[in-house]
Amino acid sequence: MRVRVPQLACVIAAIIAIPGVAVAQSSPDSSPALDRTRLPIAEPIVKPITELDVRNTQPPPRFQVTAPQGAPNVVIVLIDDLGFGATSTFGGPIPTPTLDRLAKSGLRYNNFHTTALCSPTRVALKCGRNHHTANAGSIMETATAYPGNTGAIPNCVAPLAEMLRLNGYSTGAFGKWHETAAWETSVSGPFDRWPTHQGFDKFYGFIGGETDQWSPLIFDGVIRIDPPLKEGYHFTEDMTDQAINWIKAQQSLTPDKPFFTYFATGATHAPHHVPKEWIEKFHGQFDAGWDNVRQESYERQKQSGIIPESTQLPPRPEDIKAWDSLSDNERKLFARQAETFAGFVGHTDHHIGRLIDAIESIGEMDNTLIFFIAGDNGTSAEGGMVGMFNEMTYFNGVQEKVEDLIPLMDKWGSPETFPHMAAGWAVAFDSPFTWTKQVASDFGGTRNGMVVHWPEGIRESGGMRKQFGHVIDIAPTVLEATSLPEPEVVNGTPQTPIEGTSLLYTFNEPDALEQHTTQYFEIFGNRAIYRDGWFARTIHRAPWETGKQKPLTQDVWDLYNVREDFSLAVNLASERPEKLKELKALFMTEAAKYNVLPIDDRVLERINPATAGRPDLMGDRTTLRLYEGMNGMMENTFINVKNRSITITAEIEIPDGGASGALLVQGGRYGGWSLHLRDGKPAYEYNWLGLERFVVESPKAVSAGKSTVTLDFKYDGGGMGKGGAATLSVDGDQVAEGRIDKTQGFIFSADETADVGLDNQTPVALGIGYGPKETKFTGKIHEIVVEVK
C-alpha cells in the first residue's frame, strides 16, 4: 500500500513534539501538510536541539516526499512517424496485437492530435504547453533566433517528469529524445535540456531525431556508450530490455513508490530497419498498391465505427501518381518498401508487448495508467515520390531514382540500407486523410490514434472517445489522475500555466461535453485553427517540397465543419466566408499569443545555424584543435566543413612496423569523410551519401616516427554541395591529389559523429574496419587541427 500525503494549502513543518526539539505547529489531524504547488517541496524547519545527551531525546521524523496514496504508475508509449490509418487498432492493414489488446480493455481516442512534427510533439507532450510556448516551433535542428522557435526549452515550462519526480515518483525515459538544443549536445553541455536534467532519473536512448537501429548512437544518462555486442542486435529490442529491467528493479527495491516510464521508440521513423523475418511476414500483402490499401482501410474504419459512416475519402495529393499508372519496376519496389515498413510496425508492437507483459508479471497492470500514442505525427512522406536507399538524400536535396533502387531491393531494411518509403504509402497509412507528417493543417499530419488503459481508473472496456484532444492534454491528465496540483513554481522559477486540458473527464463519461475547444496548428508555414468543431486551414507546402515556397500572403484558406466532415473532404470556404474570416483572425490572435509569429517556412536552409540565426557551438571560429580520445562529436557541435575549403593537419607518431586506422572522420556509411591510414598509407575518402565515393590515397606508407599528414581541400564555390580538389601531403611533401566531384551541402548524418582516432558506428571509408575497435588508429595522435576558409 502506497502512503498518501494529503495536499493542503501551505507548508507546515515537523509535526510531532520531540523532547529537546522545538518544532512548528501541526495540522489539525497531525498529518504532514505539503504545498505541492511549489516544487521541490520545502523541508520542515526544525529548531536546533538544546539537550546535551542524545539519550534524553528522540530524532525528528524523517522527511520524505511520497506520492499521493494509490497514485498510479504512468507509462507513455510514443511511436514515431506512424499515421492514423496504419494500425489494425484504427482500421489499418498492419496487425498490432499489443495495441489491440490494450484497446480491448481500455479506450480508443479517434480525435486526438499531435503537432505534425517530432520535436514539437515531444516537448508539448511532456510539458503540457503548446510547442511554440516551449520554443519548439520546429525540430531542434531547424531552430531559429525567434521566440517560439529557439529550440531552448525555458525553465518556466517544467516537464511532467520533473513534476512527478519531485512528488515522489521514480522516472525513466527510454528511446528517442530529440528535445535538446542542437548546440547543447557536446561534452561541454550544458546538460539542462538533456533527459536527466528534464526530470528523468534514468535515460537510455539517443538524443537526436533518428538513429541507425542496427548501429545506434546511444547515451546512458549523458555518457555515450557502445551498443551491446550481440548477433542480430536491434535498438528497439535493446531499449525494451533496458526499460523492463529498470521497472522491475525499481519495483523490487521500492514497491511503494510509483514509476513514470516514457517509452519512445525510434521506430517507425526512417531508417526503416527491421529483421528480415519481420519483413517476410508481409510479403505480397501490399502488391495491390497504395490506392487499394487506402480504400480498404477507409472501408474497415467505417465498418468498425472508428470513423463516422458518413465520412468521405478525399482524393490523394496531385503529386502522387495513381498506383495503376506505375511501371512494373515501380510497383515491385514500392511494395517492398511497404512490406518493410509494416514489418517495422509489427516488430515495434511486439516489443511493446514485452514491456506490457513485464508490468503485468509484477502485478502492476491494474494501477498503471498507460497512454499508447500511435505516432508523434502522421506517417512520413519525406521519402518523396520513389522512396530512398539513404534518407540523408532528402536532407541534401538529392532525388534518388527507381533504376538505382531496384538492385538494392532485397537488402531493404538491412544494415546495408538507410531506407525510407515512397510518399504514396504515407497517404495510404494516414487514411482517411489527404496529407501526412509536416502538414499541420491536415489531420493526416496531426490526428493520431491513441489508446488509454487503466483498469483501476476506467470502468469501460473497449470504448471509443470522440472529444477533441491534443498532445498538450496528456500532462494535465496525468496530474489529475495522480491527484497532484499544477505547480506554480518549479526549482525556483514561476511557471507558465499549463495550456492543455485534462482528458480525465472523458475516462468514464463517453458523451461528456468537449472541453478542449480551441487549438492552433503550425509547422513550416502549414497552419490551421480549430474552434468548436470548425477547422480553418491552409496547405502552404507539401512535405516533399524543400525549395523556396510561394509567399505566405498568397496562401488560400479552406473551411471545414469537422463534426460533420471527419476527413476534411468538404471545403465550405465559399459557403461560409464570414466564418472563415472569423477563424483566420482567431488564428492570428492565437499565433501572437503563443509566439508562432513570424512564420518561417524555410526547411533545408534552417539546418545551417548561420542561416537560421541560432547559436552555434563553434560560432565564428575557423580553427578547431582536436586531441586523441575526442570522439562522438555530433554534427551540430563540430566545426562546419561543408561548402568551404578546409585544411586538416594531423601530427602523428608511427611505431616500428607501421600503423593503420582512422585519424579523423565525420559521418558514416551513408555520408561523410575520412582521413585515415590504410596499410600505413595516408588516404582521404569522401563518401557522398553512400552513392558515390572519391578517394585520394598515397602510394607510399608513412615512415616510423613523428610525421605531419595534411589534407588540403579547395572548394569550387558557386553554391552548396559543389566539388573541389583534394591534396595529401606528408611532412610538407605532396604525395597524392585528386578530384572530389560533389559534396554534401546540408548534412552528413542525423546521428553519426565526428571522431578522432577511430570511426564510431558505421564506417565512412571502405577497408579500414567496422566500429571503434577495428578502426582505432594503431599509432599515436598528438593533435589534429581543422581549419576552414
UniProtKB/TrEMBL annotation:
- What are the boundaries of the signal sequence? 1-24
Q: What keywords appear on the UniProt entry?
A: Signal
> Family assignment?
Belongs to the sulfatase family.
Please tell me the species this chain comes from: Rhodopirellula baltica (strain DSM 10527 / NCIMB 13988 / SH1)
**What Gene3D superfamilies is this protein classified in?**
3.30.1120.10, Alkaline Phosphatase, subunit A
**Cross-referenced InterPro entries, in alphabetical order?**
Alkaline_phosphatase_core_sf, Sulfatase, Sulfatase_N
Q: Taking every annotated instance into account, which residue ranges of this chain make up the domain Sulfatase N-terminal?
A: 72-482
Source domain of life is: Bacteria
- What is the name listed in the Swiss-Prot or TrEMBL entry for this protein? Probable sulfatase atsD
Ion transport listed as a keyword = no
